[in-house]
């Protein structure tokens, strides 16, 4: 790397891509294979809910927030409204 190339401006897209790749590699190493765990949890949660309600898998979002001492798994599922009269059955 010469002194002149140090002062030239690099395109922002390659720099952003490189930073993202570093960040993703770091997250994968910290999580230690937890991405498979998240996918497994998503499938199992959907299977349980699908027993009772028809769910469009395209309308499911899973988000993992990692804190200092606690990690939070957030699952957003869009539940369709019934086409007929709304009935709520209490199970006991």
TrEMBL record:
Signal sequence range: none
A Pfam family reported for this protein in Swiss-Prot or TrEMBL: MinE
Organism of origin: Inquilinus limosus
Protein family according to the UniProt entry: Belongs to the MinE family.
Keywords: Cell cycle, Cell division
The protein's name in its UniProt record: Cell division topological specificity factor
Chain's role: Prevents the cell division inhibition by proteins MinC and MinD at internal division sites while permitting inhibition at polar sites. This ensures cell division at the proper site by restricting the formation of a division septum at the midpoint of the long axis of the cell.
Domain of life: Bacteria
């Amino acid at each position: 790397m010469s002194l002149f190339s140090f002062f030239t401006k690099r395109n922002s897209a390659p720099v952003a891509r490189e930073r993202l790749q570093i960040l993703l590699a770091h997250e994968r190493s910290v999580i230690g294979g937890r991405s498979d765990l998240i996918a497994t949890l998503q499938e199992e949660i959907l299977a349980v809910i699908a027993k009772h309600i028809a769910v469009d898998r395209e309308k499911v979002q899973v988000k993992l927030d990692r804190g200092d001492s606690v990690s939070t798994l957030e699952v957003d599922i869009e539940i369709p409204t019934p086409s007929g009269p709304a009935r709520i059955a209490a199970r006991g």
